[in-house]
Each structure stands twice: as C-alpha cells, then as structure tokens.
Design brief:
- The protein is α/β, with parallel strands linked by helices.
- The chain has one domain: Carbamate kinase (3-Layer(aba) Sandwich).
- About 40% of the residues lie in helices and about 25% in strands.
- The chain contains ten helices and 17 strands.
- The strands form four sheets. Strands 3-9-2-1-12-16-17-15 form an eight-stranded mixed β-sheet, sandwiched between helices.
- The longest helix is centred in the first third of the chain and has 24 residues.
- The radius of gyration is 18 Å and the shape is globular.
- The two termini are about 15 Å apart.
- The model has no long low-confidence stretch (mean pLDDT about 90).
C-alpha cells in the first residue's frame, strides 16, 4: 500500500509561535510520532505546507534588499522546501527506522492560469487590519482576512498540472525510502523548450498532494490539519462532525467551507477519491490512529 500524507501548518507552527527552528522541530517531533500507524503499512510519501515559512522568507528578502538582492517567489518556495524537508528528515527517520529523503520538487502550472490575475493564497504572519492595510499601501501587497484569525498577504495559487520529479519519487520509494516531496505545493514552473522556468506563485499543498497521490497510484491520501474532522456549520453552536462523505456529499458542502482553510482539503480529497476509487482521510495528527480505524476523522469517497 502507498500512502501520501499531507502535513498541515500546525505540524510546524502553533498559534502564537514565531516559527523558530527550535519551535518547528519540536512540533514536527510530535507530528512524526503521530505517523506511526502508517509506518508499517507500506510505502509512504510526506508532503507539507509552507505558507508561514515562505511569507517569512519574503520578509527577509525585502528587509535585506539593500545588502543582498531579493530572490523571486518561486525560489523562496524552493528554499522553504529544503528548510522544512531537512527538519522532517531529522525527526521522521528515528521514528520510521528507515531512510527519509527530501526531494526538491517542481510542479507544472499554466502560465495563463487565471490565478495569476487574482491572488488568493495566504502566506506569512497574521496582522491586525490596520497593520495589514499599512503594508498593503507601503509594499504593494494584497491582503485578506484569513479564516477568522487575522489579516495576511495573498499571492497567486495556480492549479497544479504535473509533478516533474515523479519518476525520481518512484525510484526512491522502490528503494525503501520515505520521500518528502511537493513541499509547499511544489516549486511552480512551466516548460520553455527543454528547460524549466519558475513562476512566482505558491501552489496549494493539498491540491498538489492529491495530484501526486493520483500520479503515484496511491491507495490512500491523508490530509492532516488542526481539527479532528470536517464539520458542517463549523464554529457555530450547531456544528456537526462528519465521519463519512461521498464525493457528491463533500462537493455539496464546499460553499460553506472556508476558502483559505478546509475547502481546498475537501476539494483535493474529492479529486483523489473520484480518480482512484480510494477514500481520502482528513483528520488531525492526534486523532490519526483512531481515524485509520474509522473512529475519528472524515473519510471522503
């Protein structure tokens, strides 16, 4: 059995944290321990988000611009892939007892994707509205209110079309290696002749994880997030935890889900389930063991 597991932002940074290396490593240690139920169940590929990290990297570039030339966004994605991949390797290998390798991964997108005209992907830290509007004026950012937690910068988030390093991922899996791939959704790129050209965007990691799982022919897609399951009427006194959803039921739920939070996770799960006939699972790291046994989490498909 092959499983693709997508680690959400809470696996790296908790609310109120600054995102230091020590904080991220401590959080990843807990997340990697939570993956134990999957480690003896076949082949494993781990993906992860990078929204806070890539936003922080862009801040470093902007503030140091007078002394060091800032790099484009797609290279900031590459930098955070390596940063987070190194931390995952160091924490997952002792738990798994077998090799873990981070593979820098490009994901093809369309240069004319409408997302480039309408940025929607939140990156970086949260601000109050006054500070966000100030940064919008001073730095030319676009900002949005994100999932009730504050204001954040948004960047383009095009649809992922193809994982470039797919055969390299397959080769590592065949060698018995746990692969860390498609970090932060992958480095956005397009083909220009025989070369790859980076594009300034951040691909949604759940959609990229679903694409990777489909291209690998994976048996299972697991999306780990802050909450134990998908809820109907989330955040109200009538919220309802949903344990099982068909693809059609999940799709009907999409309009009430937060665009910057649960909606892309459910969309990615529906795509995987319909393409493969296998179920996708959305849950938290803490509830993963029970979710695999059907006693927690939301199974889609």
């Amino acid at each position: 059995m092959t499983a693709v597991v997508a680690l959400g932002g809470n696996a790296l940074m908790r609310p109120g944290e600054r995102g230091t290396a020590a904080e991220q490593r401590a959080n990843l240690r807990r997340a990697c321990e939570a993956l134990r139920p999957l480690l003896n169940d076949g082949e494993l590929v781990v993906t992860h988000g990078n929204g806070p990290q890539v936003g922080n990297e862009l801040l470093r570039h902007e503030r140091a611009a007078e002394e060091a030339p800032p790099l484009p966004l797609y290279l900031a994605v590459a930098q955070t892939q390596a940063e987070i991949g190194a931390l995952v390797e160091s924490e997952l290998e002792p738990v798994a007892g077998r090799p873990v390798a981070c593979l820098l991964t490009h994901v093809l997108v369309a240069e004319d994707d409408p997302a480039f005209e309408k940025p929607t992907k939140p990156v970086g830290p949260f601000y109050d509205e006054a500070k966000a509007r100030e940064l919008e004026r001073e730095r030319g950012w676009q900002v949005v209110h994100d999932a009730g937690r504050g204001w954040r910068r948004v960047v383009p988030s095009p649809q992922p079309l193809e994982v470039v390093e797919l055969e390299a991922i397959r080769a590592l899996i065949a060698a018995g290696t746990i692969v860390v791939a498609c970090g932060g959704g992958g480095i956005p790129a397009m083909r220009r002749g025989i070369r790859l050209a980076g594009l300034d965007a951040v691909i949604d990691k759940d959609r990229a994880s679903s694409l990777l799982a489909r291209e690998l022919g994976a048996d299972r897609l697991v999306i780990l997030t802050e909450v134990d399951a998908v809820f109907r009427r989330f955040g109200t006194d009538k919220q309802e935890e949903l344990r099982e959803l068909s693809g059609d039921e999940a799709e009907a739920l999409l309009p009430e889900l937060a665009a910057g939070s649960m909606r892309p996770k459910v969309e990615a799960s529906v795509e995987f389930a319909r393409a493969t006939g296998h179920a996708a699972l959305i849950t938290s790291p803490a509830a993963l063991g029970e979710a695999i046994e059907g006693r927690a989490g939301t199974r889609i498909g």
